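Backbones bend. To wit:
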Amino acid sequence: MEALTSEVTTLVTETTTTTITTLGIDVDTANHFFELGVSAIQFGLLVFVVVIVYKLFKLFF
């Protein structure tokens, strides 16, 4: 799973960087916002998993 996440992140980063460079946006600024987006997604997934586990726990106990 970790390897897959790494692959996807690399692919998205390369694609995003290429697009940004083409558009002429400052790459450092764009990378900063991209990292914020990734953090937000990871946080959202974490919350989602915690909620699912909690609901399953309540269901069985």
